[in-house]
Write a structure and sequence with these properties.
CATH architecture: 2-Layer Sandwich
Number of domains: 1
Distance between the termini: 22 Å
Structural class: alpha+beta
């Protein structure tokens, strides 16, 4: 047991045909098979997706075990349904359609948002970290904004889409930005100001309901947590654990800065937008925007700098050595986007990308 706040993780997965790799509309069947093994899968907007959710975890070791079990059960359920489960943020193959899941809410979203909803197939990863209250969650969101692009670079896993190299490490984040309430959160002065903004967006018809607050950091509507939603679903369990550990370290650091009255770093919207685009384009093996020195810097250098910035929190949680080791491993072996691009460039055959993604999905952490 550590003195660190608890955390939990939600991962979204794509269901594809085992032979062609095309998305298949089998989420209900997969969920039914998973339930027989004690795992409750959530149905996503399209019928080609399912979502897992861990129980509350106190340590990243516990989180790792839960994530691996959930992926294995969901993968087995997909196999029973004649599908394959992939931890990819977008379909590598050319989909014919993304049928919307047949619930009243999802049907309404499909009708309201048209092709934004029907061209989904987007899979992300959401980390919940316990915070004292909603005002603390809002303050954490304000303080995390400069770190969000780097967290996107770290988890980028959508380089190949529609049988083509997108030229981006995270094409998911580019597509996701089309939703009117997606992307980095605005700066809010309080939870009341946040609530007023959400109510305005709903009254104006921009959002159907408050469940469509898709900002990359938001106070959870259901739990006493702050939810960080910036990531592509990582390719491996080890990468998800690294992401979750870093997120918790960032949240703990932000809470500590808030308690000490440290000022929030000012950040112009155009600068943050530029940093997001650079992260989506270059990923972990290129340059990011150095928000301290106002220039470009290798993303890995920025990642190492972030680890040192939040090191006291990581040490409190018992995660510093794991994070340092895992970051070094990913630097050498590559994250999801780097793996996709590497196998694609061998012979431009999407079957290689599908095989790589399938292996990574169930890869056991070392």
């Amino acid at each position: 047991m550590t003195n660190a706040p608890t955390l939990g993780v939600e991962e979204e997965f794509l269901l594809v045909d085992p032979d062609s790799g095309a998305p298949v509309a089998k989420n209900r069947q997969v969920a039914e098979y998973a339930a027989e093994h004690g795992v409750d899968l959530q149905l996503e907007l399209t019928r080609c997706q399912v979502e897992t959710a861990t129980d509350v975890a106190h340590t990243t070791a516990d989180l790792r075990d839960q994530l691996l079990r959930l992926r294995r059960v969901a993968s087995g359920a997909a196999e029973q349904a004649g599908a394959r489960l992939l931890a990819v943020a977008l379909p590598p193959t050319l989909p014919t359609e993304f049928p919307v899941t047949d619930t009243p809410r999802y049907r309404d979203i499909g009708e309201r948002y048209g092709m934004i909803a029907h061209e989904q197939g987007i899979c992300g990863c959401h980390v919940h970290v316990a915070v004292p209250d909603r005002d603390a969650a809002i303050d954490v969101g304000n303080r995390l904004r400069p770190w969000l692009p780097l967290l996107l670079s770290l988890t980028a896993n959508s380089a190949i889409y529609r049988n083509a190299d997108t030229g981006h490490a995270s094409w998911r984040s580019v597509l996701w930005a089309r939703w009117p309430s997606a992307g980095p959160p605005p700066h809010f002065g309080s939870a009341d100001e946040y609530d007023a903004a959400v109510q305005m967006l709903c009254r104006a018809g921009v959002m159907r309901d408050d469940g469509m607050v898709y900002w990359d950091v938001r106070p959870s509507a259901d739990f006493p947590t702050v939810e960080i939603r910036v990531a592509d679903v990582p390719a491996t369990v080890a990468e998800t654990v690294l992401f979750a550990a870093l997120v918790r370290g960032c949240v703990m650091t932000a809470l500590d800065d808030g308690r000490r009255g440290e000022p929030v770093q000012p950040l112009a919207p155009y600068v943050l937008k530029a940093a997001y685009w650079k992260a989506a384009r270059d990923g972990l093996d290129g340059d990011g925007v150095d928000l301290e020195n106002h220039g470009a810097a290798p993303a890995l250098t920025l990642a190492e700098r972030l680890v040192e910035r939040v090191r006291p929190a990581l040490e409190t949680a018992g995660d510093y050595e794991m994070v340092s080791t895992e970051l070094a491993r990913i630097a050498g072996e590559g994250n999801g986007a780097m793996r996709q691009q590497r196998v694609w460039r061998r012979r431009h055959d999407v079957s290689d990308v599908l095989a790589e993604a399938a292996a990574a999905t169930l890869e056991a952490p070392s």
